[in-house]
Design a protein that fits this description.
about 450 residues, mainly alpha, 10 helices, elongated
């Protein structure tokens, strides 16, 4: 707006001269300097706005090294504003730093206090678990000692069963020398076999109990070892945490450990730590309960086996006495028994004949039923239907097969019974001449040897 007004108040020649000067200035003068900060604050003229020439042709060639007054004011004004803004920002940073120092100091002090308190609580937990572990270690030690004493008693009781076993086996061997008719499985032999089976069962039970006791001793030792390892770890952890709790800001033995943060991934958590000790204590409690039950079981086993062996010994002795009395009366009863045996033989023979005839009578119905069923299966295509005649024929064949199987089994039983009757008849015929020999074996050999049977205290492992 300045240039048009000046041109309006000048003569044409002056206007032409002024335009020529301006053109020369535009050709010779370099591009004016722009301050980017000033432009951003609106203090410098916008780009493309015309600048007032500083002088005429005399200043051509020196323009590039000088600034305009507007640029000079703009420059130091921008510097003043920048200095004020930087001072304000610095003051803000200083205030924030002061507050941060105060907050971090309080936070660090509170965090350290909380850490000390938590270490104290941790020490109490470790001491409580350590005391409980030590208590169960003592229990397991005493339980293991008791089990070892019980194991020795069981072993002595097992050794004591060899004598009654040898007596029972010798009695059976002597009675096996009885002559023909007297070589029977009588009540004495039954009781002797029961005694042998009982002694074997007692020996097996004692061996299993000894094995269980040995296994329990091993389990107690393993559980005790686990508790001792856990107790040792807690003892060491207690010492370390106690040392940690004594550290203060004035301690001289503290130092930086940059690797501490990297060890967090290798640590267990509190639930797993508690569960580990609880599992060890539960295992120890379980072994203690198992030891208690096994001790009661071992005592009861010794008591029961001793009682059973002595009761069976009395049963065998009573059977011997009864058998001797029976042999004295046997001769009178032999003839009557012989007659009855003959009658049973005849009746069984007739029964066998009747059974064989019944089996033969089933042959024709079986052939008819099987032929019908075979022909019925030959029906073509859809006529091969599972109708009522089909099911009836199948049922008839199955019924005849079952009947024949039952008759065959009954015939086999009858023939076996007949064979036994024949053997019994032969035995009865020879029995009278064998009674004297049998009485000698029963009284002189077996009953005298049974006087060496062990006492109750020996069988109890004492």
């Amino acid at each position: 707006m300045t240039e048009p007004l000046a041109m309006a108040s000048s003569t044409p020649n002056e206007i032409m001269c002024s335009r020529c000067k301006k053109m020369r200035s535009e050709v010779l003068v370099s591009k004016p300097h722009y301050d980017g900060g000033a432009v951003a604050r609106g203090l410098q003229q916008e780009q493309g706005a015309p600048f007032e020439p500083s002088a005429g042709l005399a200043t051509a060639g020196f323009r590039s090294a000088k600034y305009t007054p507007a640029e000079w004011f703009s420059g130091y004004g921008s510097l003043l504003q920048q200095a004020g803004a930087d001072q304000l920002a610095a003051h803000t940073v200083q205030e924030e730093s002061r507050l941060l120092r105060k907050d971090t100091e309080a936070t660090a002090e509170q965090t350290q206090t909380d850490g000390t308190r938590l270490l104290g609580e941790r020490l109490q937990d470790i001491h409580r678990w350590k005391s409980e572990l030590q208590e169960h270690i003592g229990r397991l030690l005493s339980d293991t000692t008791a089990l070892q004493a019980l194991k020795m008693r069981l072993e002595r009781a097992l050794d004591a069963t060899e004598t009654p076993f040898a007596i029972a086996v010798d009695n059976l061997t002597c009675r096996s020398r009885r002559l023909g008719p007297d070589l029977v499985r009588d009540c004495v032999e039954e009781e002797l076999l029961k005694e042998v089976d009982l002694i074997r069962s007692v020996q097996g039970l004692l061996k299993r109990t000894i094995a269980q006791v040995a296994t329990q001793i091993k389990l107690n030792s393993d559980a005790k070892q686990s508790l001792e390892f856990d107790w040792s770890d807690k003892y060491e952890a207690y010492a370390l945490d106690l040392q940690c709790g004594r550290f203060t800001n004035k301690s001289t033995d503290t130092q930086h450990h940059a690797i501490s943060a990297a060890m967090v991934e290798q640590m267990s958590n509190v639930p797993s730590w508690i569960k580990f000790t609880q599992d060890n204590l539960y295992r120890a409690f379980r072994e203690e309960q198992a030891t208690k039950d096994l001790s009661e079981l071992g005592q009861q086993v010794l008591l029961d086996t001793t009682k059973d062996l002595r009761v069976q010994c009395s049963n065998v002795d009573q059977a011997f006495l009864q058998r001797c009395a029976e042999q004295m009366d046997a001769k009178i009863q032999l003839e009557m028994q012989f007659k009855q045996t003959l009658a049973q033989i005849g009746a069984q023979e007739r029964n066998i004949v009747a059974l064989q005839k019944a089996i033969d009578d089933k042959d024709a119905p079986q052939r008819v039923a099987e032929s019908r069923l075979y022909r019925h299966y030959l029906r073509p295509n859809m006529e091969l239907c599972r109708d009522e005649p089909q099911m009836s024929l199948e049922g008839e064949v199955r019924e005849i097969d079952a009947t024949l199987a039952s008759l065959q089994q009954q015939l086999s039983d009858a023939r076996s019974s007949l064979s036994h009757l024949e053997e019994t008849r032969m035995a009865l015929e020879k029995d009278i001449m064998c009674k004297s020999h049998s009485l000698f074996i029963e009284r002189e050999k077996c009953m005298n040897q049974r006087k060496l049977y062990p006492t109750i205290s020996t069988l109890s492992g004492y």
